[in-house]
Specification:
Largest sheet: 2 strands, antiparallel
Radius of gyration: 17 Å
Number of domains: 1
CATH topology: 434 Repressor (Amino-terminal Domain)
CATH architecture: Orthogonal Bundle
Distance between the termini: 55 Å
Strand content: 5-15%
Length: 117
Amino acid sequence: MPAHLARDASNDLVEHMRLERKAFAAKIRMTRALVGWSQTELAHLVGLTQRSVHKLEQGETEPRRSTVGLIEQLWQKQGIEFEDLADGGFRVRARPELFAAQDPASPRRTRQLPGAN
C-alpha cells in the first residue's frame, strides 16, 4: 500500500475514534441529566473518580472497555437505550418517567440503582 494511502487510512481511523469518543461523552452527559446524577454519583457507581468522569464527558480520554460496559449496564438498568446512526449521531430512548416534569424550584432529585448504596 502506498504511503499516502496508509496515512489517509490512519487519519480516517483517528478521526473515527475521536468522533466515537465525543458521541460517548455526549451520551454520558445526557444520561446523567436524565437520571439526575452528579459526576461524583456516576463515578461512585462505576468505580471511577469524579475527575475521570469529567474527562470522559469532555471526550479527553479513551475509555476502557470495562468502563464502557459498566456505564452501558447502568443505562440499561435505568431504561435508557442508544441507537447509533450511520451519520455518526445517535438516537436515545428512555422510560417516560425519566422525562416527568419536575418543579424547577424543588431541590434536585437523584435516582439510584437498586442496591447501588
